[in-house]
Design goal:
FMN binding, about 240 residues, Pyridox_Oxase_Alr4036_FMN-bd, alpha+beta, Split_barrel_FMN-bd, 6 helices, Pyridoxamine 5'-phosphate oxidase Alr4036 family FMN-binding domain-containing protein
């Protein structure tokens, strides 16, 4: 059976589950490294930060990364594509459900970074009469405010991790790690010049990943019989179908 909807039911399932299970925020994000002789799949666990609903049919899932990380490059390998650039596998054990989300992922680094000009401001900021989330950005300045707010919401050790050398780079002397900052205050709450320097460096590397879902597969394995539903976005609305688990 197939049905059409503007605001997808999968979003209601996800937000309800997250409201009831505050710690169910970790998912696997898969990308493809296409730089070598042959494509290599890559996966890592990410932390879900928030959801933007500037348009009811186009919710945006927000995560974060270091702009110098391989995943940022992999997500930008096909900048002109209208299709997905990554897939999320999100197992939520408390509810015995799994979300698999094919998404086009937009990378929002600091304004000083070259990739900043490639961000789809006009596309993602639009509000076509739908419900706007409390943080739904409308301008480049709004997006930067969201990036800084997300940075400030991180725990101090995680903020400090963005002031380290490039992720994955060779660490010739392990003792050098002792020189890295272990915690950092929020932007605007630095108390020393050294903290200001380190926070500035961390913010320059801190990047938002905005996942624009295009296809969602939702498996409910805690009920008998099991249920599985798929949604596909055609650019305007979501098509919902029930499939065999």
């Amino acid at each position: 059976m197939s049905t059409l909807s503007l605001s997808p039911r999968w979003l209601g399932h996800l937000t309800t589950i997250l409201s009831e299970h505050k710690k169910a925020t970790t998912y696997a994000l898969a990308t493809v490294n296409t730089d070598g002789e042959f494509p290599i799949p890559r996966a890592r666990h990410m932390v879900h930060r928030s959801i933007l609903t500037s348009h009811p049919a186009r919710p945006i899932l927000i995560s974060t990364t270091d702009v110098r990380s391989p995943k940022a490059h992999q997500l930008r390998s096909h900048p002109s594509t209208k299709g997905p650039t990554a897939e999320v596998a999100w197992w939520i054990a408390e509810e015995v459900v799994q979300f698999r989300i094919l998404a086009r992922v937009h990378v929002l680094p600091a304004p000083s970074h070259p990739l900043h000009s490639d961000f789809s401001f006009s596309e993602l900021s639009q509000n076509s009469g739908g419900d706007s989330g409390p943080d739904a950005p409308e301008t480049a300045e709004d997006w930067e405010a969201l990036r800084i707010k997300t940075f400030n919401n991180l725990v101090p050790p995680l903020r400090a991790s963005f002031a380290r050398p490039k992720p994955g780079s060779l660490l010739e002397n392990p003792a050098d790690a002792d020189k890295w900052p272990q915690t950092l205050p929020e932007y605007g709450k630095e108390e020393t010049e050294e903290e200001k320097k380190q926070v500035k460096e961390a913010l320059a590397n801190f990047t938002l990943l905005l996942l624009e879902p295009l296809n969602v597969d939702f498996a409910e394995l805690g009920v008998v019989p099991n249920r599985r539903t798929q949604w596909n976005f055609d650019g305007q609305k979501w098509d919902e179908v029930t499939v065999v688990p």
